[in-house]
Amino acid sequence: MSEYFQGRYYKHQKGDEIVALIAGRSEDAAFVQLIDRSLSRCFFYPLSDYEKTDRSIRIGPNTFAAEGVHLDIEREKSRISANLRYGPFTPIRSDIMGPFRFLPMQCKHGIVSMRHDVDGLIQINGQTVDYSGGVGYIEQDSGRSFPSEYLWVQCLEDDCSISLSIADIPFCGFRFTGCIGVILYQGKEYRLATYRGVKIERYEPTSVHLRQGNYRLEVDLSSFHPLPLCAPNKGKMNRTIEECVACGAIFTFIEGEKALFQLRSDRVSIELMRG
């Protein structure tokens, strides 16, 4: 299959410990990526080592499943092992792409779980972190390329999980700035999206302000110290983007004249591609 990629992003968080794993395939290779506060590595495998079913992805000796993740990586001067177990997923009510899921898009996005429990250990180059009692988030992407410009933000806190993407979207010969976002707050889901009439009032690398009907969401980044991450372009993992798994941000979510919450966190994951 030419000019095609697919991948899943697994975020794990306990206290100040955060690690993200990405498992997927491109046109010519399978890959496992790992990024934490100080390390970003991408390990490539032959496509023959890649196997995907409805419930799992296997890449060589590494398995990513609904029940959890097993890693056994010893290559390129790195030694990474993990046995992580997941609790029940929290899916969103409907496809985050809305009606765009039926159209030929450059990249299609999906949210697998806004929040779930995590238990188990991960060892990275001799250092072991116990994620027991932690939380996780999972999403997925597929298509040809990531957008030429985009901002992605994900936040996991005690009673709140937020996922937001704003991107330059090529579509049928023209381009537009699209937005898809979900807020899970105290068990209630809120959806902000282009197909629901969201208005992007401010869109800068450090600040996003959105309005949709009676709701307003303001995201202001207070710190961003990224590491390089491999990303797809025309089906191959030959592009570099910026990601920080633990940045500072302030989220303000307003309904009418009432602030539903103002959340400050220094454990916000941010991905940025500048044009």
Keyphrases for this structure?
275 residues, 12-stranded antiparallel sheet, 10-stranded antiparallel sheet, 0% helix
Low-confidence stretches: none
Number of domains: 1
Q: SSE string, helix = H, strand = E?
A: EEEEEEEEEEEEEEEEEEEEEE
| Count of DSSP-assigned helices | 0
Main beta sheet: strand number and arrangement? Answer: 12 strands, antiparallel
What does this structure look like?
This protein is mostly beta strands. The chain has one domain. The protein is 0% helix and 70% strand. The strands form 2 sheets. Strands 1, 2, 3, 4, 5, 6, 7, 8, 9, 10, 11 and 12 form a 12-stranded antiparallel β-sheet that branches. Strands 13, 14, 15, 16, 17, 18, 19, 20, 21 and 22 form a 10-stranded antiparallel β-sheet that branches. β1 (5-14) and β2 (17-25) form a beta hairpin. The mean pLDDT is 95.
Structure summarized in a few sentences:
This protein is an all-beta fold and 275 residues long. It has no helices and 22 strands. 0% of the residues lie in helices and 70% in strands.
Q: Topology, please?
A:
Layout: E1 5-14, E2 17-25, E3 30-35, E4 40-45, E5 50-52, E6 56-59, E7 62-65, E8 68-75, E9 78-86, E10 107-124, E11 127-130, E12 134-143, E13 150-157, E14 160-171, E15 174-185, E16 188-193, E17 199-204, E18 207-212, E19 215-223, E20 227-233, E21 236-255, E22 258-273
Antiparallel strand pairs: 1-2, 1-12, 2-3, 3-4, 5-6, 6-7, 7-8, 8-9, 9-10, 10-11, 10-12, 13-14, 13-22, 14-15, 15-16, 17-18, 18-19, 19-21, 20-21, 21-22
